Amino acid sequence: MITARGLERRFRRKGRTGGEVHAVKGVDLDVEAGELVGFLGPNGAGKTTTLRMLTTLLEPTAGTATVGGCDLLEDPLGVRKRIGYVAQGGGSAPESKVADELELQGRLYRMSKADAIARGAELAEQLDLNGLDQRLTKTLSGGQRRRLDIALGLIHSPGLVFLDEPSTGLDPQSRANLWDHIRRLRAEQGVTVFLTTHYLDEADALSDRLIVIDDGRIVAEGTPDALKARVNGDRVEVGVDPEQATDAAEIAGRLAGAQELSVDGGEVRFRVPRGDVALPELLRALDAKGIAMLSVQVHRPTLDDVFLTLTGRSLREAEEAGRAA
Amino acid sequence: MLRDTWLIFRRDMLAALRNPTWVMIGIMQPLLYLFLFGPLMVRTVQDQGLTETAGWMLLTPALIAQLALFGSSFVGFGLLAEYRSGVVERFRVTPVSRVALLLGKVLANALQAVVQAVLIIVLAALVFPLDAPVGGVLLCLAIVFLLAVSLASCSYALALTLKSEETFPALLNAVLIPLLLLSGILLPITAGRAPDWLYTVSRINPFRHVVDVERNSFGGDFTMDALFTGSVVVLVMAVLSLWWGTRTFQKENA
Q1: pLDDT digits 0-9 by tens, A180-237
Q2: How far, in Å, are A169, A214, B43 from residue A39 at the CA level?
Q3: Which run of H or E residues covers position A31?
Q4: Which of A48, A122, B23, B204 gives a 20 to 30 Å CA spacing to A167?
């Protein structure tokens, strides 16, 4: 469905200082038909820029891509006909009626009036927008408007749909509901979905496969589980009396496979391949030395650990750095 | 492309019909000029030896030109709002013709300008003495249409280039006020009454010629001399503006 090789995009910076921003630094992508792929990265990593290139909205500075079987540079019109795109901020006009927006969108995709109306009604049904067709879009709730945006992107039954940060700004319930709709889209209609997100839970919950981007480059890809397996085991945090922390750390370091050992006050942290197996042994060894364990936590690897392992910073840190820049 | 243009045109017209307040607010300014400034101006030209009817015949077509000038120049604001709400991008990712995205909007604006012009002419004719032949009024409306097409295209191109709600109106005001004053809309700038330099500067202003041709056609003066320059100017403006607008809309990342 998507094949991209060496996609790059530079922006000229405005103002007298000039200079260039290298937003996307050579991206290779492969997405098969029927996949639900998550494109994960912190804000400012180049997700939206990549997406805008793949959807013909932005011309790449370098590189090639085929989207939906059409060459991005040679046949942008062919690409446009075959894809749906739901932008981050949506795209419904506040003063327009829901039904009018759906009909117009269908007709812009060269559908007949009757087909556009019928398909609009069908999508409204599927996306729980029944009864809203005469409402102005500005009167819809956040979740409803998001579902309308998705309906607009699907009006011409594309085989491939791009969703840019679909759940940003939604309350938890609307988010969960939206996820269900996205899953069903793939399951029932076989639509290939390419979605960007900077939410780890969203990437984890929805995607078959993740592509991780940081600073304009792809840093990893694989299933969420495979990516998590690349992190070296579970993270264990043991709380002890601060005066005994060094001794406790020494004992923990002797556990089979222990690494990334650190001490912070009375908190000893390390990774072991199996936290559940290592704990009893650690408990016995600490006891033998007369060290009392005050607290203990075992964390299974999360995508945040994956991100940390891949880039040396957590997703949250990357976001903050991105904002400061 | 025709079909796409029609779709966009219809969308914008429906939006205008749903909220006709804006069309009404648009003609408020010329109406205020007509009723609050008109009597004063007519008395002034009467002192110079013109009849009362001649005075109103000078003002009415000029106010129509002013309406097109101001009404159509600010339509870019609407585009900026659509840009912010993501509508522009939503359209651009469909196979819709980029030219149609511009043309549909521009035609809707031009039609609204003509409707507003008709309203003003009707109101003026009901209240004040006017003596305009039907053919002249129609030609006058055609010129308003072309003028609105030019200004709306430029407005959209400018808005899409600047993409800023702050600089857009600032720049427009800076351009429009001198254009207005140098066009002789309020008082005709004639060789006899204006200082030479002012007269010369006003001759450079294309709108002056458009206002002249509006007045001449409205008054039923169909001689070559009266219509040629202004008609050519408004046609050239329309072509250049559409070319600029089309180019801007076709650019990537617009």
Answers
A1: 989 988 888 889 999 998 888 888 888 999 998 888 899 888 888 888 777 778 888 8
A2: 18, 10, 72
A3: strand A20-31
A4: A122
pLDDT band at B252 (very low <50, low <70, confident <90, very high): low
DSSP letter, residue A242: G
Indicate the DSSP class of residue A316.
Answer: H
pLDDT (tens digit, 9 = 90+) per residue, B6-31?
999 999 999 888 888 877 888 888 89
Alpha helices (H) along A135-235: 142-154, 172-189, 200-206, 224-229
Cβ contact, residue pair A109, B87, below 8 Å: no
The predicted model gives B65-87 an average pLDDT of 91
Q: A210: helix, coil or strand?
A: strand
Domains with residue ranges and CATH for chain A:
2-225 (3.40.50.300), 232-300 (3.30.70.980)
Query: Torsion angle of alpha carbons A271, A275, A277, A278, nearest 10°?
Result: 40
B86 close contact with A: CB closer than 8 A: yes
**Full residue range of the structural domain in which residue B56 is found:** 2-250
pLDDT in tens, A240-270: 988 888 888 888 888 888 888 888 888 898 8
Our count of domains for chain B comes to 1
pLDDT tens digits, one per residue of A128-152? 898 998 999 999 998 899 999 999 9
User: By C-alpha distance, which of A58, A64, A34 is closest to A46?
Assistant: A58
Question: What DSSP element (H or E) covers A212?
Answer: strand A209-214
Would strands A160-164 and A267-272 be described as parallel, antiparallel, or unpaired?
Answer: unpaired
- Say if the Cβ atoms of A109 and B95 lie within 8 Å: yes
End-to-end CA, chain A: 34
Can you say whether the dihedral through the CA atoms of A201, A204, A207, A212 is positive or negative? positive
CB pairs under 8 A between A and B: 62
Residues of A in contact with B161 (CB under 8 A): none
Residue-wise pLDDT for A176-187, tens only, equals 888 998 998 888
- The C-alpha of A54 sits at a distance from chain B's nearest C-alpha, in angstroms, of 11
Which residue(s) pair with A218 in the sheet? A213
Q: Which of A72, A138, A63, A71 is nearest to B85 (CA)?
A: A138
**Helix, strand, coil distribution of chain B in percent, nearest 5:** 80, 0, 20
> Under an 8 A CB cutoff, do A104 and B7 touch?
yes
Q: Does B21 touch chain A if contact means CB atoms closer than 8 Å? A: no
pTM above 0.90, yes or no: no
Please indicate whether, in this complex, the C-beta atoms of B95 and A81 are within 8 angstroms of each other: yes
What number is the average pLDDT over the span B150-154?
Answer: 96
